[in-house]
C-alpha cells in the first residue's frame, strides 16, 4: 500500500492545528486553598508579597562575628545566643561573638558566620585562629531566593509538586485557578461487559474506560464516566444529549469506523457538526472530532491501543489549551538507533510502541512485539512511541528512527 492508497486521510499536524485553532480556553476561575491546587492552572500571575528569606539568616551552626574582632588572636567571649525563631537581643560588646544556629536571624553588625567545626572553645573564650573569614560568609541575605514583588509563576502554569511548596514559602494560602475542563466519556459496543461479570459467547470486557479515565485526570481534567452504551442509536443519542449537559468535552470510544453498528458519526452529524474524520495515523485512523451544541466531541476508535493512543496524541494538546495551560509542551522526539526491525507500509504516520534504552550514550529502541491495535500489552510494555514518518516503509535493525518519550501523564 502506498500513499496513493490512502487518499483523503488528513495529516496529524493538520488535525492538531484544526483542533487547537477552534478550541478557546475555559475562562471560569475558582479560588482554592493551596494544598488543593495541585494540577490546576494558575489564572493570574503570582508575585511575591515578601522577601524570601524575610531577613538575613545563618546558613550554618556556628558563631556570628564582626570581622574587625578577628584581627587579633584574642579569644572572643560569647555575648549571647541566636536560634531559629529566637533572635539575639541585647548588647554585643566589641571583642565578643554570638553563638548562632542555622536559620537564626543575623545580629545587627555581624559580618560573617564561622562554622562551629572551625573554632576551638577554651576557658578564655572562642578561638578563631585557623579561620579564613570572608565578608558575608555563611550568611543568606534577605531576598536571596525571591525578591519582594518578583514574578514567581505566570498565569497559565500548571501547578506541580515543585510549585506548591514554593508558593507556601511566600505565605500565599489561596490561589486563583481556572476551573478544570469537564470531560464526559463512555464506551460503545454490544459486546462490552463490565468487569466482575461473566462473559457470554462473543463478549469482551470494556477496558477502554480504564485507560481514558486516568489519562484524562493526569491531563488535568475532571473525568465523568458514563459507562457502557450498547450499539443502539436511541440510547446513544440520549447519552450524547446528557453528556453535553454535564461536560465541556464528550469523548466516546468505538463506533466511529465503517461497520454496520458504527453509529457515532451519524449521531454527531445529526446533533452537531463533524469537524474531521479519518486521519493518516496508525493505529487510530477512524478518529473523529467535532462539535455538539453544548460541547466539543472526540470520537476515539474502539480498538484499545487506538483509543488510548489517539487520546494521548490528539486529544491531550486540545485539553491543555482548553485548560488554559499555556506552558504545555508536546512530548519530545529524539533520534534512536533500532535494535529490532519495524514493519510498516507507507501511507500513514505510525506510532509503534517501543522500549528505549541508552547504550554508550546513544538512544536505542526495540519493538514491544505484537503491534496490533487490539493488543494492549504493547502499550503496557512500552516506554516510548516509535514515530515512523508517513512515507516511510519498513525499518531494518541499525536504522535511525524518531522516538517520542512518554510524558508524565503516562505514569502514576
Ligand atoms: P469499533 O470501533 O466499535 O468497531 O471497535 C473496534 C474493536 O475494538 C472491536 O474489536 C471492539 O470489540 C473493540 N472495542 C471497542 N470498544 C472497546 C472497549 N471499550 N474495550 C475493549 N475493546 C473495545
Ligand atoms: Mg463497536
Automatic annotation (TrEMBL):
Under PROSITE patterns, the record lists: MOCF_BIOSYNTHESIS_2
Q: Which residues form the MoaB/Mog domain?
A: 184-321
Source superkingdom: Bacteria
Which terms under GO biological process does the entry name? Mo-molybdopterin cofactor biosynthetic process
InterPro entries (UniProt xref): MoaB/Mog-like_dom_sf (IPR036425), MoaB/Mog_dom (IPR001453), MoCF_biosynth_CS (IPR008284), MoeA-like (IPR038987), MoeA_C_domain_IV (IPR005111), MoeA_C_domain_IV_sf (IPR036688), MoeA_linker/N (IPR005110), MoeA_linker/N_sf (IPR036135)
**What EC number is given for this enzyme?**
2.10.1.1
Task: Report the protein's function.
Answer: Catalyzes the insertion of molybdate into adenylated molybdopterin with the concomitant release of AMP.
Question: Could you identify this protein by its name?
Answer: Molybdopterin molybdenumtransferase
**What does the record give as the organism's lineage?**
Bacteria, Pseudomonadati, Pseudomonadota, Gammaproteobacteria, Vibrionales
Amino acid at each position: 500500500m502506498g500513499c496513493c492508497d490512502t487518499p483523503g486521510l488528513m495529516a496529524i499536524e493538520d488535525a492538531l492545528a484544526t483542533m487547537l485553532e477552534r478550541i478557546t480556553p475555559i475562562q471560569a476561575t475558582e479560588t482554592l486553598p493551596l494544598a488543593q491546587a495541585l494540577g490546576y492552572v494558575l489564572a493570574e500571575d503570582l508575585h511575591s508579597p515578601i522577601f524570601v528569606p524575610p531577613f538575613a539568616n545563618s546558613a550554618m551552626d556556628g558563631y556570628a562575628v564582626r570581622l574587625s574582632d578577628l584581627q587579633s588572636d584574642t579569644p572572643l567571649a560569647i555575648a549571647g545566643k541566636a536560634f531559629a525563631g529566637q533572635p539575639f537581643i541585647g548588647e554585643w560588646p566589641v571583642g565578643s561573638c554570638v553563638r548562632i544556629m542555622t536559620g537564626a536571624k543575623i545580629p545587627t553588625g555581624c559580618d560573617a558566620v564561622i562554622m562551629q567545626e572551625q573554632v576551638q572553645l577554651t576557658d578564655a573564650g572562642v578561638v578563631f585562629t585557623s579561620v579564613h573569614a570572608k565578608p558575608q560568609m555563611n550568611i543568606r541575605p534577605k531576598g536571596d531566593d525571591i525578591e519582594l514583588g518578583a514574578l514567581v509563576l505566570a498565569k497559565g502554569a500548571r501547578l506541580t509538586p515543585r510549585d506548591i511548596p514554593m508558593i507556601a514559602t511566600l505565605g500565599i494560602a489561596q490561589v486563583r485557578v481556572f476551573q478544570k475542563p469537564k470531560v464526559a466519556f463512555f464506551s460503545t459496543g454490544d459486546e462490552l461487559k463490565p468487569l466482575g461479570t461473566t462473559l457470554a459467547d462473543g463478549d469482551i470486557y470494556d477496558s477502554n474506560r480504564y485507560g481514558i479515565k486516568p489519562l484524562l485526570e493526569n491531563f488535568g481534567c475532571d473525568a465523568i464516566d458514563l459507562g457502557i452504551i450498547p450499539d443502539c442509536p436511541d440510547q446513544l443519542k440520549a447519552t450524547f444529549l446528557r453528556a453535553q449537559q454535564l461536560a465541556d468535552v464528550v469523548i466516546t470510544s468505538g463506533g466511529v469506523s465503517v461497520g454496520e453498528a458504527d453509529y457515532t458519526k451519524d449521531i454527531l452529524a445529526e446533533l452537531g457538526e463533524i469537524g474531521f474524520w479519518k486521519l493518516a495515523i496508525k493505529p487510530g485512523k477512524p478518529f473523529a472530532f467535532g462539535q455538539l451544541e453544548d460541547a466539543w466531541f472526540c470520537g476515539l476508535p474502539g480498538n484499545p491501543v487506538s483509543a488510548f493512543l489517539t487520546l494521548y496524541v490528539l486529544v491531550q494538546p486540545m485539553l491543555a489549551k482548553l485548560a488554559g495551560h499555556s506552558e504545555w509542551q508536546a512530548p519530545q522526539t529524539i533520534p534512536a538507533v533500532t535494535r529490532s526491525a519495524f514493519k510498516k507500509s507507507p501511507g500513514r504516520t505510525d506510532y509503534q510502541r517501543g522500549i528505549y534504552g541508552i547504550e554508550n550514550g546513544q538512544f536505542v529502541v526495540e519493538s514491544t512485539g505484537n503491534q496490533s491495535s487490539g493488543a494492549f500489552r504493547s502499550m503496557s510494555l512500552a516506554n516510548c512511541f516509535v514515530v515512523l514518518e508517513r512515507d516511510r516503509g519498513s525499518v531494518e535493525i541499525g536504522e535511525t528512527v524518531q522516538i517520542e518519550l512518554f510524558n508524565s501523564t503516562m505514569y502514576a
